[in-house]
Specification:
Layout (H helix, E strand, L loop, with lengths): L2 H29 L5 H28 L3 E6 L5 H11 L4 E5 H4 L6 H10 L2 E6 L1 H5 L1 H12 L3 E6 L7 H4 L4 E2 L5 H16 L1
Parallel strand pairs: 1-2, 1-3, 3-4, 4-5
Length: about 190
């Protein structure tokens, strides 16, 4: 179920409950003579105000709960490692964007730029082959240019850019639950900073 469908269902539920309360109030007005119209009107206004407050709370909760967008970028040769990392760092409040699943053949560098600009953090797998790739070099330059939080996973010491080596990085052959937890904590830090 996508976000819009979920949101519309929540809104429909609020409207349905309001309609049900209004129906009960109308029934009481018509079939329970000992209730006066002032009590009925008060009940009806209470139901409508409750629905309005619920709708406002729903809108406000959507405005103030934003997921952290994290881009995972890597070469196709490193897909198994990337999948393993993504499976181990999934958490509530973080939207993982697999760059290889988002980009389509024929996409231009502008598509990469827009994805990176919209991200809060980037996890990048730097294998020896990735560091020789012109495409990956372009992505690295954009990541540096946009000043994104970078979590590098380094699979080689050869040709790793100096600015990447100056960051706290994780060696791919040392990945374990502790390293996955470190990545999750870094992403949570980003959400709260």
């Amino acid at each position: 179920m996508n976000k819009k469908t979920k949101y519309l269902r929540e809104l429909l539920a609020i409207v349905s409950v309001t309609g049900a309360v209004a129906s009960v109030v109308t029934f009481l007005y018509l079939y329970v003579p000992e209730l006066n119209s002032k009590e009925i009107l008060t009940s009806f206004i209470g139901a409508v105000v409750g629905a309005i407050v619920s709708i406002i709370v729903l809108f406000m909760s959507k405005l103030f709960t934003r997921k952290t967008n994290v881009v995972m970028t890597y070469l196709e040769d490193d897909r198994a490692l990337a999948t393993d990392i993504m499976n181990n760092i999934k958490m509530k409040g973080v939207r993982l964007i697999d760059m290889r699943n988002v980009l389509m053949p024929g996409d231009e560098i502008d598509r990469v730029k827009s994805i990176l600009k919209a991200s809060d953090a980037v996890i990048i797998i730097l294998s020896e082959k990735a560091l020789r790739s012109p495409w990956m070099k372009s992505e690295l330059k954009l990541i540096a240019q946009y000043n994104k939080r970078v979590i590098p996973i380094i699979a080689t010491d050869k040709n790793t850019p100096r600015w990447v080596k100056q960051l706290f990085y994780i060696k791919s052959d040392n990945l374990n639950e502790h390293s996955y937890q470190s990545i999750r904590e870094a992403l949570m830090h980003r959400r709260h900073s």
